[in-house]
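Annotators were shown the component list below and the corresponding predicted structure, then asked to write short factual statements about the assembly.
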Amino acid sequence: MRPLVLLVAAVAAAAAAEAAPAEPPRGPHRLVVGAELSAAVGPHDGGFFNYTSYEESAQRLARLSLTAEWRVSEPVALLGEVRDENLGRPRVYALYARVRPWRERAFDLQAGLIPPVFGAFARRRYGGDNPLIGYPLLYQYLTSLRPDAAPGSAGDLIANRGGGWRVRYPLGWGDAYPSPGLPVVNALRWDAGVQVRIGSEPVEASAALTQGTLSSPRVRDDNSGKQLSVRAVWKPVTGLVLGASGARGEYLSRSVRQALPEGRSGRGLQQAWGADLEYSRDRWIVRSEAIWSRWDTPALARALQALGLTGEVRCKLVPGLYGAARIDHLGFSRIDGPGGPVSWDAPVWRGEAGAGYTPFRHALAKVSYQRNWRNGGRVQELGLAIGQLVLWF
Amino acid sequence: MARLPMLALAVAAGAATPRPARAAAGSIRGRVEVTREPPAPDARPTVGELGMPAARDVPNRRRSVVYLEAAPQGAFEEHERGRTVMDQRNETFVPYVLAVGVGTTVDFTNSDRTYHNVFSLSKAKRFDLGRYARGQSKSVRFDRPGVVRVFCEIHSHMSAFILVFAHRFFATTDGEGRYRIDNVPPGTYTIVAWNDGETRGSRSVRVGDEGGVVEQDFVVR
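Structure shown to annotators:
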């Protein structure tokens, strides 16, 4: 990581020096800070449908988020975000430099702990950007894969089917430390690396080289592998956004590779493709996203695959009040088990519908009802009524 | 939020001491000098963006409104049903401050390539115009006096003020801070300068029976 940071710092400094006038420009908003406090309250999620990689439930979560954007000069800005969840240890969620080396060219460079290029949902930063309280399954639901442990056989996978909250595997650290599995794309952690964006409306493209993968973003490298992710966006008319994304990187840690029995090897690749759509007009916003992902596991001959679909709609009813709904599905490929072919993790469906009310501009109160269905695991069906209050400035 | 009841009171009362009719009407004019640095726009950090946000204009926060706190009897019955425009250009409301009489319709035009979604949660007028594209316009009629704070739901840095008066004795300042209120009946009035969401100063002025022009300047620090 160190050479990467040095390279980025050098590029940023060079760009800043090239563009810096004799006197620093006096922008009207050189430093912008913001804060958001959100608190979600709901019943105990006995099926762990809403738990995240931080071992918190997204529907029983108090979060304080502090964000800052410092425009150092016209072409250079520094951005960061620190989050605290349920009064735990504060975490740096984002910390990166943004550089536009040429004023007249639509070319941007970002480096550090950066927003993900892949997909659409993970960059929705603020509470108001998510009209509901829960997350799409694709970005939050914990599968039974781990980055630091791997199944030794199909039977190990099947034993953890529908139990992504606590996964044990024989290879790596899995036996010693049962741990949460990986989501298809982790929206709650950002990856460290470098990202470029070129173009502007109606077509733009982005690419990023990062330490971790979509499922397992990382600040520090743990396997000497890098992820390349790309995204293209087309906005043919105002209000319509079409996106396509791809990513490929190594998610298995070095410790798993070292624990592999002799004769077995594998880099542990995650590859993913995604397509997303957003159309908005008048009082309506409709969003849809599909992501296909595959993970190589050293002990299994066939790669494990997952396909997730999500659709969301929001409609404003009267000033300050909206209604919203989302439907999600996450399905998994089949493997050969002792009792015949079976999906390697339990397929999940989720439906959520709710409303949001803004009594004044800096507050948003949401209520929703979420229902989950899973074809496996200890709890296979669960309904949750959830409330959330979001305050921001 | 103290400014809201202040303005509501101002437009509802008739406590001035105008002279009887037939006396010549006068004018009040002057300059509002805003010496303080306008505050930064109400924006949120763009942490989730994949690059520099598009360049945008900075609203003219030096534009002020000057009005009579209490108008002559009968002034409240003269409702102008006019029409005016608040544009959205380079992610900025133009003008930043609009002063209108009760009954006025404001057309919110969109001159940007992106969507805008104008809304207000103010007590004087709650509305939400939804998302609409370049070249389109949506209208709102303001039927109650008060201060209406206007925002764009998509761009958090966009905001503006619309001051709705129940009488006609108000004016907005020009590029040099100058204002002029005409046809003021003789009498003694409290004149108020308002800037960027707050009442910044008030003075007592007297328009004589012979009419004429009364000068009154303000300095906003």
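Statements collected:
1. The radius of gyration of chain A is 22 Å.
2. The longest strand of chain A covers residues 304-318.
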